[in-house]
Design goal:
The protein is mainly alpha-helical. The protein is about 80% helix and about 0% strand. The longest helix is centred in the first third of the chain and has 22 residues.
Length: about 120
């Protein structure tokens, strides 16, 4: 299990790197969907349920942005739902949650260059 998780984590890291070369936000986020999927599998294999929840949250966020379904209301609702579920799964360790919220705001509000900087 540990070796398989490391392979999925490596694949996720490579995909995240590749995503930074995307020419537009949709391309970048599409690649990051696969990155988050690989990391979610790795988290599940290692029993990291909080990480898996945040990866699923990232996948949903990226799909919303790609389909242009985001607005201020959806942004606030998404952040609240992500925070509540993440805290329910992991009552300690808020840094990953804070990073997820920061990147969610960047993805939904900023252009591609600023989004890459936020990443």
């Amino acid at each position: 299990m540990f070796i398989a998780a490391q392979v999925f984590s490596l694949l996720g890291a490579i995909l995240l790197l590749i995503s930074t070369f995307g020419k537009n936000k949709e391309t970048m986020l599409s690649i990051q969907i696969f990155d988050s999927t690989c990391n979610c599998i790795a988290d599940i294999l290692l029993g990291g349920w909080a990480g898996a929840v945040l990866c699923v949250s990232a996948i949903v966020r990226n799909i919303l942005v790609i389909k242009h379904k985001q607005n201020n209301v959806s942004l606030v609702l998404f952040i609240i739902i992500t925070a509540v579920v993440s805290i329910a799964v992991n009552k300690a360790g808020f840094i990953p949650l804070i990073a997820c919220i920061e990147y969610t705001i960047a993805v939904m509000k900023l252009d591609i260059q600023k989004t890459k900087i936020a990443l």
